[in-house]
Amino acid sequence: KRSSKWISTSIPRTKWFTSTSNQLSSADYHTQSILNKVLFSQTTELIPSNAVVIEIAPDDVLHYILTSSLPLNVTNLVLTRQTDKNINTILQGIGKLYNCGLQPQVANLYPPVEFPVSRGTPMISPSIR
Asked: 3-state class of 65 per DSSP?
């Protein structure tokens, strides 16, 4: 289920809580998000001061519009860009979340490490600069 802080730009505000599919971050929700027009003006007024806005989209389509429309104390993050390697973009976004004082659970991005590791596992210290 989506967080109550999730502001949708693809569903009219009056329909946010009328159906279960509008409350889930599902394939159906994201498909509708791609197919429907962006309801930008109804959502920007709901973004509070000092908020962190994360654009969840296949590209940073609204990044520049959001940056110019929102107050300066709102942090605007994107997690994907078509021109970049997305791993770099997503890791930079996670770093910016830390800088905003949030605590992303980075360990959830990776499978759990089984200990002890095998004897032939190379050391990582030579890779750290």
From this structure: helix
